[in-house]
Amino acid sequence: MLVNATEMLRKAKAGHYAVGHFNTNNLEWTKAILTTAQEQRSPVIIGVSMGAAKYMGGYKVVAAMVRALDECLGITVPVALHLDHGNYEAAKACLEAGFTSIMFDGSSLPFEENVEKTKELVALAHAKGCSIEAEVGSIGGTEDGITGEGEVADPAECRKIVDLGVDFLAAGIGNIHGIYPKNWKGLRIDVLEKINESTNNIPLVLHGGTGIPDEMIKEAIAHGVSKINVNTDCQLVFAEATIKYCAEGKANPTAENKEKGYDPRKLLKPGYEAIRAKVLEKMQLFGSIGKAE
Ligand code: 13P
């Protein structure tokens, strides 16, 4: 059931758990996320970056695919289709294409410009019944060609952005997209605490969910994080399972390969199952299982 993300995240904040945002890249990814959420009675957010949407053919393709899968697979748990790290143009395009939620990432802009554009997009999103996430302080590392400096958010700036009416807020607290470097110092829980106090109980978003130790994830949830973004982890397990399948010779293009393991539906299956297992593991950690009722 496609919905915006506001209510599911307010419930998560009140219930002290987090909803997983899992990035999708294609049909297999989307099916894996949807079917796991349904089996586990968990709300879920399907995230789509600008690069992934371009790869799949455009925002309209993604919206049509997710809506059709949601219907044809009989998904009844709440599912939000969310633009991840969108620029101003992408945010507007997704509202037109039928997304139920957008993230406008104005964190690389001068703060006043971030405020102006966020304000405009809040009005456009809400007029369409969509939820909107904004960002203050950038997430470190690179995702889909977009690099952030990993700057820690200022709680006063977070308050200003929240007061514009955004539904949930991503704030840089030392988190990084992709694999964390060995000398990473951990999340700034002290800053998260201050942001949580200054932002009127709004659900907070933790990007860079791959590679953060479980205990730190739990601490972040205890300090107001209600949405956790995961991308790299699913990419890693998908690649690992596919490489293993090929290394075992199962995709060999020979007449002796009676299983015809090069059939794309067989070739992509181990990766699909690996994503399902990773999504389940994250839902268990975030505490969202059974929360769709
Ligand atoms: P990871 O790729 O580190 O899991 O981060 C995902 C993310 O934050 C998407 O916005």
What are the distinct ligands in this entry?
1,3-dihydroxyacetonephosphate
- Spatial separation of the terminal alpha carbons: 13 Å
**Overall 3D geometry?**
globular
Widest beta sheet: strand line-up:
3-2-1-10-9-8-5-4
Class from helix and strand fractions? alpha/beta
C-alpha Rg (nearest Å): 19 Å
Which residues sit in consecutive blocks of at least 5 with pLDDT less than 50? none
- Name of the CATH homologous superfamily: Aldolase class I
Q: Quote the CATH topology.
A: TIM Barrel
Whole-number mean pLDDT: 96
Order of helices and strands: HEHEHHEHEHEEEHEHEHEHHH
CATH architecture heading: Alpha-Beta Barrel
The largest sheet, given as strand count, sense and whether it forms a barrel, is: 8 strands, parallel
SS element count, helices: 12
Q: What is the CATH domain class?
A: Alpha Beta
Description of the structure:
This protein is 46% helix and 16% strand. With 293 residues, it is an alpha/beta fold. The chain has one domain (6-235, 274-286): Aldolase class I (TIM Barrel, Alpha-Beta Barrel), CATH 3.20.20. Strands 3-2-1-10-9-8-5-4 form an 8-stranded parallel beta sheet. It has a two-stranded antiparallel ribbon with strand order 6-7. The relative contact order is 0.16. 1,3-dihydroxyacetonephosphate is lined by residues 23, 47, 84-85, 143, 177-178, 207-210, 229-233. The site of 1,3-dihydroxyacetonephosphate has 16 residues, from β10 and α10.
